[in-house]
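hiii so my PI (J.) wants the whole complex modelled not just the main chain, which honestly fair. so below is everything: two entries, each one labled with what it is. i double checked the lines twice but i was tired so who knows lol
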Amino acid sequence: MLLSALTLTPGVVGVLLLLFVPRGAVSLHRWASLLASLVSLALAVVVWSRFDPASATFQLVEARPWLPAYGVFYRLGVDGISLLLVLLTTLLQPLVFISSWHAIKERVKGYVVAMLLLETGMIGAFLATDLFLFYVFWELMLLPMYFIIGVWGGERRVYAAVKFVLFTLAGSLLMLVGIIYLSWLHHAQFGSWSFAYEDMRRLVIPMGQGFWHSPQLLLFTAFALAFAIKVPVWPLHTWLPDAHVEAPTGGSIILAGVLLKLGTFGLLRFNRVLFPEAWEKAAPLFIVLSVIAIIYGALGSWAQKDIKKLVAYSSVSHMGFIVLGLFVGGIAATQGALIQMVNHGLSTGALFMLVGVIYERRHTRLIEDFGGLAAVMPYYTGAFLLTTLASIGLPGLNGFVGEFLILAGSYRTHPVAVALAATGIVLGAVYMLSLVQRVFWNALTNPENERLSDLAWYEGVAFAPLAIFMIWIGVHPRTFLSLSEAAVARLIGG
Amino acid sequence: MPINDLATILPELLLVLVGALLALADSLAPSLRPRFALLAAVAVAGATVLRWAIPLPGRVWGGVLLVDPMARFVDSYILAALFLCALLAEPYLARTGARFGEFYALLLWAGVGAMVMAKSDNLLVIFVGLELLSISLYALNAFHTGNVLSLEAGWKYLVVGGFSAAVLLFGVALLYGATGTLSLASTPAPSAPLASGGSLLLTGLGLVFAGLAFKLALAPFHAWAPDVYQGSPTPVTAFLSVVPKGAALVVLARLVAALLPLAALPRWTGLLAAVAVLSMTLGNLVAIAQRDLKRMLAYSGIAHMGYALVGLVAFGQDGVAAVLVYLAAYTLMNIAAFAVVSAFSEGEEEPHLITDLAGQGWVRPGLSFALAVAMFSLAGIPPTVGFAAKFLVFRAAVLNDLVWLAVVGVLNSLVSVFFYVRVVYYLYMRPLPKRQPQFSEPVLVRLVAGLCAVGIFLLGLLPGIVLAGAEVAARTLPR
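here's the output for the full assembly
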């Protein structure tokens, strides 16, 4: 019941708000949504406290028949991998509501309802241990995000929203056929219908000859396409800058902080485990693509004039690291990729939040419009600097842990990839620090920037938890690494 | 004639009688006109109760009618569609000043025609049911006599319908020649010699299929659909878009089940698959280009019958059950869509432009939400019933070694998302125009749209409710 409560609380509150609370009751909508997300966060912490890190299997398992004759069950379960990501999701969601408190003034009802449904979709996708249920939650995320970008977004929001929907669906529909095929395979091999993840692990999926006659390669492709678009793996990334830049601040935080992780999570959870031989075969391709993404994203960031776009492109680069870690394999690299998912969620979430703060004050995000902000916004500068340092991997902060583990886990087997990826780290420092210099240190030339107010108390409250975790993971990563150790070891062990 | 046989068709008898009474009452007691919709709806509800109250003896009336679980399933959804359309029609007729008893009489009789069609085992009785359905619809299409588009729709449907009926009848004649019987169930066993009758049988089968494909608006027999959808009174369009298609699809399923052992299987399956692919692809691609909402829904309907046909290509119990669930889903989402369309139109002569929906999402949240839900369901996005239905159909395809057909289906779904989502885009992401359209929101329309939206979510989350019935129904087919 605990996992169901955690998953469904936001969505149920969202539906209740939608049906029974009039549009005019703006503060009720705001408070109720914040409260629902806090309840989810509290439940996630309870799950954390009950979680046994020594066990590698799914815990707190729930199973209820849904279409039992077809093998469709409502199955939830948590392991170390999903626990980390659920904690990240439930941590970010209240912060989204706080940072949207004043930013979203119109159609508040629609916004909070969409956000709450989205949260249920995200948590459900992490916790589902039935492929059918996973697909339902996966698609449940699509429409709220479509509305969030399309209604509350920037100037080119509609283009960005439609592009987001079509890209995402293009990937996931083939995955649906793949899921159905897996259940058929289960029936063929075991004589019963099932969509359960644990049952799928027992399947023997033939490799066959060539690509078109290899069920495993085709299934791998169907699943990987859905996840690679979500990550996004270069060259499928083109939807990302549009969606991130046009989305409202809250939408960008969730999109970069959690939705992208669903892609890497899916690769690890499904592709790696269910299609191991195809995974081996595809690894070189994905390693090359991820190295391209690392460098391409970094160069793309460097060239941007808009701060939000810069952060968006940096996501392509950072996600490239995670994909690299996943496909190199090995416990260290996989653990590194996993903790890096959390890190990227924290630091990019924080960056988008902070970009939102100055956008609200100045209604511009162009780097050249700023300069010398350190003098007028000292706290804001401190927050931005901390996040920047975390993002570029300064030892002692969270980003370092993940990048170090990925590179240390990879260099023995893939020295060239590591060398190239390391240039990505250097480039990351270049574009982020030059951003900081141009925005905060240079002379304060623009008179409009002279009277900017510093972080408001609620903005500080929203940022503080992220800062705490950036330092916590940086100083004592074992707290989090130990959670997923057993689950990852089981994964790698096969 | 045993009295027991009479009892098995009580629901049909009730509807025929109430229809006749309403037609009479129109001249005898015109003051009752505002209540006709309610009377018709009550009669439909009564027929539904009767259908579920009386037992299912199977073969009755000397083997002509099959009152089995399949018939009950199809009747239930025909009656549900009738109920919703009758309610939907009242505000429409009030607005256009055409609140006549004949409308409801024709509507009920059309429903009876569909019900007879769906439960008949005899090819000629199927034909009679089809004609009852079609002739009632010719008049209903043209019911809005002040609108030239409506007259055009009636005329077009008459010409095409007459033609397709002739094709079907010719096919029936050939089948009779080939098999020596009009009964589907008593066709000769597969071992019977086919050498002489083989081509005759296949030609007859092809012609009957073509006749039914006209009713289903499957490509390449679809050309009438956009004009007829657009011109017909919207409540009639709603009825037309679901009931005849459902009945025809069930006839097709019975036909396939009965003749499958006789006909050359691969050729027959190949033909069905080709028509399914063509319908899906053509319907979805052309729907993108539509600016009129009703025309867009016409092309979407062509595509959806293509999806449903995928289930029949797969056949087997899974396939037929999937098709039946698909029909129920399609009924809910299409009627929801047309209910909102009937509210979101200023005058019946006006085109129902998608652009006119701009900004309505924030002004008329209830109806707009229902339309958005219908669009997402038609696009097949969970947790709506449209997704559950598509899942079952594609599952049936994969299970029967037709993965390629499932892939074509999902790719088509992707294409369709584009135009369904565009409706939502106009509703919520475009500013209200300066000249605000004068839309009405009659209570009955809101009720119908609300019921359908609730059904879309309920059956989307708990598809087991309708799937259980569909499986029992599917089991009645031989094989």
